[in-house]
Each structure stands twice: as C-alpha cells, then as structure tokens.
Amino acid sequence: MQSVSEKLIPKDFGYAGRFFAMASPCECLVESTERKIANRVMHLVSHEAWRIEKKYSRYLSDSVTQKINQSNGAAVSVDEETQSLLNFSDQCFQMSDGLFDITSGVLRRIWTFKPDAAFPTSEQVKELLPLVDWKKVNFSGSTITLPKNMEIDLGGIGKEYAVDRAASILQKEFPELSVVINFGGDLRITSAPKSRKSWVIGVESYLPGVKRGIDLTVGAVCTSGDTERFIMHEGNRFSHILNPKTGYPVAGAPKTVTVIADNCTQAGLLATLASLQGSDAEAFLQKQGVKYFCQR
Amino acid sequence: MQLNERKSATYNRVRNNNVAGVLAAATAILVGPSVKAEGDFWDFSKDWRFDSAVLYYGEQDRVSALEGVFSATREVDVKDVFNFKVVLDSLTGASPSGAIVQPGEQTFTRPSGNGQYIVSAEEIPLDDTFRDTRLQLNAQWTKAAWGESTGSYGIHFSKEYDYLSLAFNGSLAWDFNKKNSTFSVGLSIANDTFEPVGKIPDPFSSMVIDFGQFPTEDDYRAAFNATRIDSSDDKQTTDLLLGWTQVINRSTIMQFNYSYSNVSGYLNDPFKIISTVDGGGIATDHLFESRPDKRTKHSFFWQTKHHFDESIADVSIRYMTDNWDISSQTIDYRHYFWVGNNSYIEPQMRWYQQSAAEFYRPYLIDGETLPEYASADIRLGEFSAYTLGLKYGWKTSAGNDMSVRFSYYKQTPEDTLSSHPGVLNNLEIYPELDAFFVQYSYSF
C-alpha cells in the first residue's frame, strides 16, 4: 500500500507536501499551520490521484481502460464515473469538431517525439487513421462497444480530472482552506488564501531572462506542450500534439500554451485545443475570452 | 506526405466560438461546480528583480578598468516598470596623448602642471596619469500612456573627479497592427561639465615643459598658467530618436532606428595634444588640440532577430555620419544557442570601420599656417576594429541566471598619407589597440 511520506515541509504559509502519481511529481501547498490538517489534505489528495490512476491507466491490465480496449468488439458495461468521463469526452469531441478524440492514442504507435526521431511514412499514417474516430464507437450511456483494434485513452484529461476531483473532495471537508493542488504543472486552488492576496505561481520559460508568473487567488492553470518534446521533419518543427483527423502533428503550434480557467479540466482542454489550432492558437484563446500565455 | 498549410488549416479549425462556455457547463457535470477563476499573468507587483555584473576591461600596456553594475527592476506589468541602476567604475593606466612618436626619448608635462613623464624612444607617447573613479546613477520609469501608447522617462547622473553629467530622457511608443508594429519617438537632453585638474588649456597653446629654462618654480607656474583659460567648461547634447519595430512573423523581428544628435560647447579633450614636426620629422613643439564647438550626427540602425528552433540569430548594421566628416559602419552578429541543461552560448563577431575627421592630423608641420582646428586623437582618425566574443550563460539550481562573457577587441589604424617627413617614415606613428573584456553577470 502506497502512503504519503510523513515529511511535510514547513513554509511561511503552512505546509507543503509531495508525492508521485500519473508519471508526474505532485505537490500540495496547504495554508494551515496545523500539521494534522496538512497531513489529512495530503492523504485525501494522494489517494484520489492514485485511485484514478489505478482505475484508468492504460498501462495497468485490470484498469477500466484496458478492459474496454481488450473487449475485442464486445460491449462493456461501465460504472457511473466512467460514464460521466465518456459523456464528457463525447461532448468535447462534438464541440471541437473532432479535434479532441479519445481514440487517437493508437497514433502513438508510430509517433515518437524526440528531435532526432524518424518521421513516419504516409503509408504508416494511412494504415492507422481508420482506427481513429470516436464516431465509430457505440456509446449507449451505460455500455460502450469499441470496434476491433480501436483503443481509448483518457490520458488527455486524466491528470486534470484528478486535480479537480481532489479539489472537490477538499472543498467538502475543508471548505475554507486554501490548498494549491499541483500535479506536474496542472494546478488548482481550492479556495482563496487568507494570509495573502493570492498565490504566486511561476511559469516555466525556456527563454532566459524572460520571467513569467501568475498571481492566482482561486481557479486553475494548465499548460499544454513542452519545449522538449517535438519532432523535426524537412527543417520544420512539429509539436507532440497530434491532430486526430490527419494523423499528423500540428505545425506552427506554440511550444507551450498556458491557460487560466475556473477548473483544471477546462484549462487543460482549452490549452490542448489551442495547441491544435497551430499558428491560430492565440486567436482561438482570444475568442474564448480566457487569460493565457503562449511561448513560441 | 502532404501537410500543406491549407490542409492543416481546414482540419484544425474549431467552428464553435464558445468552447469555453460549453466546457464550463460540461466540466460542472463532470467534476462539480467551481468558483470563477481570479488571477492573471504577469503580476510581480510585490517582487523586485536584481541584476548585477562585474566587468574587467584591459588594454594591452594601457588603460584597465573595473566596473560594477547593480540594477533593481520593479515590474508590475509589461507597461509599468521602474528601474534603478548604479554603475561604479575605476580606471587606471595610460592613454595616447596625441603627441608624435620620436626616435629619441621625450619629456612631457603632466596635465595638472605638477611633474613630468618620460616616453622612451620609438614609443607612442602615453599619458600615464589616467586614473579616475566614476559613479553613474540612472532611474527610468515606463508607464502606459494615453491610448495604446507607452511612455518612458528617466534621469541620469554621472560623476567623475573632474566631470559631471546630468541628463533627462523621455520617449513614447505606440503599438498598432495588432501589436505587430511599434513606433517610438524619444528625446534626451544632457549637460556635461568639465573641471580638469590644471584647468582648461587654451587651444593651440604650447605645452610648457620645464627643461631647466625657468629660473624659479614661480616662473614655470606663471608660464604654465598663461596657457590656461578657464577652470571649467561645459557641453550640451540633444538626441532625437525615431524607432520602428516590426514583427515579421512568429520567429522574426526587425527594428529600424534613426537618431539625430547635436552636441555643442566644449568638445575638446583637455588632455590631448598635437605635435609640430620639422622637415626631418623631429618634434619642435606640442600644442593643445582644437576642435569645433559643434557636432551633429545622423545614425541609422537596422537589426533583425530570427528565432530558430534551438537558437536565435541577431544581426545588426549601423551607419553613422557627422559634420566632422566622420562616417562609420558597424556590423554585429551574435548567435544564441541553447546547449541543454538550462544553459546557452552566444558567440559574437563585430566589425567597425570609420573615416577620419576632416581636422584629424597625426602631426602639424612647423611653420605652416595653423589650421582652424586640429586633433591627433586616434579616436578621430581612420581605423577599423573587430570584436570577437563568447558568452556562456546558465541557470543556477535556485533558478537564477548567471553568465560570463569574454571578448577580444583589436583596433587597427589606417594611414591615409603616402609619406611623412624624415624619421617619421621609419616609425609606427599610429597607435594600435588590443583589449580584453571579461564580464560576469548574475540576476536574481
């Protein structure tokens, strides 16, 4: 059984605690000088993260995701939480005209995002593309039927969903407590802090001398893309964001897109959809009326 | 593989203009209600940023300088910045006095009139009394002005032992074309006052040198004082700058500047002299230099920065012309490479070439009618120079920026005369210059 390290780090605002989940370092900043409260927060947040990871990880053979992916064309009945996640994915697919598609994970078989990785041939892409289309999935509400060889992957929203779930658990038990829940850079503040006007969050910048920060009282911040993962082809740089309609990475996308929104799932999707707009990322975010920061 | 712009454009488009609204409703069902986000980027209102640097500058056998810079910036917003900077430098060493090199030893009077210095045979005469400490203070405010414009204004104070400079500047910048273009206008006014040790020499008066011809110290003093006119003098500088910055595309930015500068008042260097030589090339006298009391400059500057995937190229060209007949060209190229592990290197190459001022003369001929103006200051002569530099910067474990820059500078004078009187033909009469810079910077 995994457990939170007893080591809480005392800070001027209270305590900070760390754990590891979803392939990312996770951290909570708790605005309380009571060690007992901070420990309880760490316990609730980490166990929710591990619960969701265990349930939906595509690397764990007994996960819901794997059960669906290995159904070999048969109908799989799903529980309430999975239904709401699939419902949400369906709404995102509709709203984005197919740019957000949880069946696009199969494309990872041919795409590796390292500067010197091989660029797949058009035959390879053509071969896989028929396996990417949420419209081919029969989702009735309580059962899902996946055509043979197709896969779903909730990785595109899993981390953000976990942050928001953890936040709503904390809001029930400690409605007045301000906690920054940060899962590998996707973060949410549960309630406005008391000891200060806002939390100051640093934004990673790859340009030396450029320092960006966020002053956040309450809300969420997510970043899409990173400066390390990309592929070069014929002198062009392609981000690791794949367009499920073409099977190719998006050209002209910002290196990173950071968005502020009310919750993490919202911020994460807006950042992902903006990256998919390529050179129109900023225009897209402008239209949505959200606060953002793109690094080109 | 067909991945052209048009195809990706149609495949990328999200037609729904209210994605954020739909998402808010959908996420409320998925993860429950959330409070409206409250926050923004770029608000470091409580934070100051500090930059510090130490520069060592050393010329071979001549001036060396040590400079410390400390700067504090409070950046509330992109359009609300306050910067305060203190620069302290200390210079020691020798610089060319302007006097001509000779086949034998030469004796000169120090600028203060107290004491002498000896220059060996075939050596460029250097005045070795160059020693000073300079303190500079700068304060600059940048604020949003009316409309889409940004205003900036500042004051500058600089003090050396014998020199005081005060300056004011103001500028306005307008963004338009979706912030892809910026037009700026700036004005700067400065007043400099000189109060050299030994007072200000009368232009073209002879340097009084005590070879034992004065019966008493008072007689020498009287002769020295006769060459002095004022204890202090000043000059005024007005600079006007017009700038245009253009974003060409998402990885290229270009800048054009034009500047006009008008300087009037005391423009001589009170320590510089020019020798008169006879037909055999032997120095007969050393006169204090005489420059016009007005100078107007026009300068044109173009810079382009291009952002490649893992590097940034930075090229700039400057052309300057003035009413002293000096024109100069500068080409500067820097290339910024990320080398991983939060570090970068930036090599630099710079080339500079200038033509001489119309009154620049390496020496005057004894007996010729004195021209209206004359100076043997090599900085007004024809020369070319290049700089080679390398900078290495990295991020510390605490997330602060550090860098070290090394540069080498070489200045080569150009002889525009085909022959010289007598012995001067066999001597190196123009001073060359080799210098090294080492700079260490730390931002926190």
List keywords for this structure.
heterodimer, A: 296 residues, alpha+beta, T-fold, 3 domains, nine-stranded antiparallel beta sheet, three-stranded antiparallel beta sheet, 7 helices, 15 strands, globular, disordered N terminus, B: 444 residues, mainly beta, Porin, 16-stranded antiparallel barrel, three-stranded mixed beta sheet, 3 helices, elongated
Give a verbal description of the structure.
The complex is a heterodimer of chains A (296) and B (444). By secondary structure, chain A is an alpha+beta fold. Chain A has 3 domains: 1-58 and 153-196, ApbE-like domains (T-fold, Roll), CATH 3.10.520.10; 60-152, T-fold; 197-296, ApbE-like domains (T-fold, Roll), CATH 3.10.520.10. In chain A, a hairpin with a 3-residue loop joins strand 5 (138-139) and strand 6. The model of chain A is unreliable at 1-5 (pLDDT under 50). Chain A has helices at 35-56, 64-69, 80-95, 122-128, 155-173, 264-276, 281-288, and strands spanning 9-10, 15-21, 24-30, 75-77, 138-139, 143-145, 179-183, 186-189, 199-203, 212-224, 230-233, 236-242, 249-251, 256-261, 291-295. In chain A, strands 1, 2, 3, 7, 8, 9, 10, 14 and 15 form a 9-stranded antiparallel beta sheet that branches. In chain A, strands 4-6-5 form a 3-stranded antiparallel beta sheet, with no helix packed on it. A 3-stranded antiparallel beta sheet of chain A has the order 11-12-13. By secondary structure, chain B is mainly beta. Chain B has a single domain, classed as Porin (Beta Barrel). In chain B, the strands form 4 sheets. A 16-stranded antiparallel barrel of chain B has the order 2-3-4-7-8-9-10-13-14-17-18-19-20-22-23-24. In chain B, strands 16-15-21 form a 3-stranded mixed beta sheet, with no helix packed on it. In chain B, strand 22 (383-395) and strand 23 (401-413) form a beta hairpin. The two termini of chain B are 47 Å apart. The model of chain B is unreliable at 1-10 (pLDDT under 50). Chains A and B meet through helix 3, helix 5, strand 9, strand 10 and strand 14 of A and helix 1, helix 2 and strand 1 of B.
